[in-house]
Amino acid sequence: MGWHWELTSATGELTAQAREAGSQPAEGFPSQAEAETWVGEVWRELLEAGVDAVILFEDGRRVYGPMSLHPAEG
């Protein structure tokens, strides 16, 4: 399974559009750095598709998150 992101919405449910946003590899990422690079490249697309936050997992173990995709105010 490797590294993968769980995509969450404010309500805890995601639309099909949100699940398809960014096209995260089904087999996951080989490293944490690659997973973080991917989310850094597609976070705007995910946000537009209804994803509010992401949670990073390694082999089913939560590493961190939820991490908001919304820009910080201030």
Using brief descriptors, characterize the structure shown.
74 residues, alpha+beta, three-stranded antiparallel beta sheet, 2 helices, 30% helix, globular
Account of the 3D structure:
The protein has 74 residues and is an alpha+beta fold. It has one domain (3-68). Helices cover 30% and strands 27% of the residues. The chain has two helices and three strands, in the order βααββ. It has helices at residues 16-20, 32-48, and strands spanning 3-8, 53-58, 61-68. Strands 1-2-3 form a three-stranded antiparallel beta sheet, with helices on one face. A hairpin with a 2-residue loop joins strand 2 (53-58) and strand 3. The radius of gyration is 12 Å and the shape is globular.
Shape: globular
Detail the poorly predicted runs. Answer: none
Helix content: 25-40%
**Individual helix count:** 2
Strand content: 25-35%
Strand order of the largest sheet: 1-2-3
* Rg over CA atoms: 12 Å
Give the biggest beta sheet. 3 strands, antiparallel
Total number of strands: 3
Mean pLDDT: 87
**What is the H/E string?**
EHHEE
Return the domain count: 1
Set out the fold topology.
Blueprint: E1 3-8, H1 16-20, H2 32-48, E2 53-58, E3 61-68
Antiparallel strand pairs: 1-2, 2-3
